[in-house]
Write a structure and sequence with these properties.
alpha/beta; Rossmann fold; Dehydroquinate synthase-like, alpha domain; 2 domains; six-stranded parallel sheet; two-stranded antiparallel sheet; about 10% strand; binds nicotinamide-adenine-dinucleotide
């Protein structure tokens, strides 16, 4: 069969440059003609937010935030934006902060300029998430896609090494899952491949020295590519697993991704030879699983879900919740049995089970 695919590219302006965030933000605010800017940043992120917004007029700093965007916090921020006559939202922070700006944009229709300080990648997607009574809802809406993203690796220097590694592996998971997600295509696979290369180069440098700006730039560049690939390809098996675990057992987002990734790669690689070839090439190895293993070793990556509060008793429920949401596109059929095996290994941090020698494909 010839090459045939459907691909959507989301429209967004990206400005990338270390030490240039304040300048780039000022030019974006002018270009968008904004007069009343609400800056969303956590209390801990306030100093960074002040530095980034030094060259613009700020109508209000807003810092009543919490992880996973609780609906009542979102409602309060929406009211603040409406009552303040705000015409632009600027968010400075990690995925939780970007998530709050998206929640406001969703109902108020305001444009967002995102200035990310982690590798979560939310800034490059049109996906929003809200939590109500500890249940997480997500949705897709182009209104939440930031109009512009300003990347400044200098702002990530303060992200501690462990969190940088976990967040960077979250980005790597976007790349790897994009290879077999429901809307995987050659464009998002190409972006994902380059994303793996950049993360593989940047993250070990960051682990060795969190102040290494060149490593930070590569990691941030890889994070952006990973998010664009993910936004286009959609959630694959890996993201479905992490979404359920994070939502139901309140496990930390980046660390959960970091632990689960090698298990999903080992599970699918044998049944997805083209994806496996691309991933291995990006790691510079023969075997994709070995490539990821060696990177994880160099990063001293998070290893076991039990370290984050999951227990063996939770696994049957996890299997029940995850099984129905695994995409049809997954290269290897998922059963209650092989999923339980995968989750048990991820729980304990043991080596992934070897896949069958003659995997069945759809
Ligand atoms: P986070 O935003 O909660 O940040 C983690 C911690 O790092 C926080 O304590 C924060 O204060 C701190 N931090 C952030 N930047 C820092 C810096 N430069 N220096 C020092 N400390 C810093 O976590 P996250 O992993 O960035 O984002 C996770 C959230 O984003 C989850 O809610 C997840 O669901 C969401 N997310 C959404 C999408 C999407 O497309 N909608 C994609 C990825 C993640």
């Amino acid at each position: 069969m010839g090459l045939s695919f459907e691909h959507v590219t989301l429209g967004q302006r990206v400005l990338f440059g270390s030490g240039q965030a304040a300048e780039n933000l000022a030019s974006e605010v002018e270009r968008l003609g904004a007069r009343k800017v609400m800056v969303i940043a956590s209390e801990q992120g306030r100093a960074t937010a002040e530095q980034v917004t030094a060259r613009i007029e700020v109508a209000r700093f807003y810092d009543d935030l919490a992880p996973h965007v609780p609906i009542d916090k979102a409602e309060k921020a929406r009211t603040a934006a409406r009552e303040g006559g705000v015409d632009l939202l600027v968010c400075v922070g990690g995925g939780s902060t970007t998530g709050m700006a998206k929640a406001v944009a969703l109902t108020c229709g305001l444009p967002v300029v995102a200035v990310p300080t982690t590798y979560a990648g939310s800034e490059a997607t049109n996906v929003w998430g809200l939590t109500e009574a500890s249940r997480k809802t997500t949705g897709v809406d182009d209104r939440v896609l930031p109009a512009s993203v300003i990347y400044d690796a200098g702002l990530t220097l303060s992200l501690p090494a462990d969190l940088s590694v976990a967040s960077g592996l979250n980005a790597l998971a976007h790349c790897i899952d994009s290879m077999w997600a429901p809307r995987a295509d050659p464009i998002n696979q190409a972006l994902a491949t380059e994303g793996i290369r950049a993360l593989r180069r940047g993250l070990p440098a960051v682990r060795n020295d969190p102040q290494n700006l060149e490593g930070r730039e590569q990691a941030l560049y890889g994070c952006y590519l990973s998010a664009v690939a993910f936004a286009s390809a959609g959630s694959g098996m890996h993201h479905k697993i992490c979404h359920v675990l994070g939502g139901r057992w309140n496990l930390p987002h980046a660390q959960t991704h970091a632990v689960v990734l090698p298990y999903v790669l080992a599970f699918n690689a044998g049944a997805a030879p083209e994806a496996a070839r691309r991933i291995a090439a990006a790691f510079g190895t023969e075997d994709p699983v070995a490539g990821l293993d060696s990177l994880r070793g160099a990063l001293a990556a998070p290893r076991a879900l039990k370290d984050y509060g999951l227990t063996a008793g939770d696994l049957p429920e996890a299997v029940r919740l995850i099984l129905p949401v695994i995409p049809e596109s997954n290269p290897r059929p998922v059963t209650g049995e092989n999923l339980l095996e995968l989750l048990s290994a991820a729980l304990n941090g043991t080596a992934p089970a070897a896949p069958p020698s003659h995997p069945h494909t759809h």
